[in-house]
Design brief:
Helix content is about 40%, strand content about 25%. The protein is α/β, with parallel strands linked by helices and about 170 residues long. The protein has a single domain, classed as Rossmann fold. The chain is globular and about 40 Å long. The two termini are about 30 Å apart. The protein binds S-adenosylmethionine. S-adenosylmethionine binds next to helix 2, helix 3 and strand 2.
Length: about 170
């Protein structure tokens, strides 16, 4: 899916103009689901569920989004009946898998603190987005110390995202 098509698809999910970090995560999700067709996807910090909804649109067999803001979960449930929403804190309430793809578009903190927990249950690929370029090397370090192998880094407008796989 080209960038423009991706933007339009995300906007159609009700989020308006998507943020750069969402776009970076979405582009990586397109690639990851092409590598793992029909994968189950966990979306951490799902908000109203746009990345999870995109995963379903791209053929994910299951998409589970965890979010700590109850209001966003309510909006997400109304918009995306094909996404499973979990209301909770990802630092303590991570949903049971298995998930072949984990995507997390979050600020740091808490992103770096979450990485070891996410990588520990990873069966395929992890996509992490939501950090500024200057925070990228620390995020990469967290991924590598957790045992993930970084495959790709993408950057736009001063933000960056990493795609990594389980060892
Ligand atoms: C940058 S927004 C991303 C929303 C959406 N995934 C997207 O890509 O547009 C990050 C979301 O993560 C949620 N969040 C932050 N820390 C969290 C945590 N520890 N557990 C669950 N959700 C969290 C925030 O409430 C917010 O909705």
């Amino acid at each position: 899916m080209a960038d423009r098509g991706l933007k339009q698809t995300l906007a159609a999910f009700g989020a308006g103009e998507p943020h750069t970090t969402t776009l970076l995560a979405a582009a990586a999700l397109v690639d990851a689901l092409a590598t793992h067709p029909g994968a189950a996807v966990l979306d951490v910090g799902t908000g109203t569920g746009i990345l999870a909804a995109l995963a379903r649109r791209l053929g994910a067999s299951r998409a589970v989004g965890i979010e700590r803001d109850a209001g966003l979960i309510g909006t997400g449930r109304a918009r995306h009946p094909d996404v499973e929403f979990v209301h909770g804190d990802a630092l303590g309430d991570l949903p049971e898998g298995p998930f072949a793809i984990v995507v997390a578009n979050l600020t740091d903190p808490p992103l770096r603190h979450l990485v070891p927990h996410l990588v520990a249950r990873l069966e395929g690929e992890i996509i992490v987005s939501g950090v500024r370029l200057w925070q990228g090397s620390a995020l990469r370090g967290a991924l590598e110390r957790s045992g993930a192998i970084v495959m790709k880094v993408a950057a736009a407008n001063g933000w960056c995202a990493y795609r990594a796989r389980a060892r």
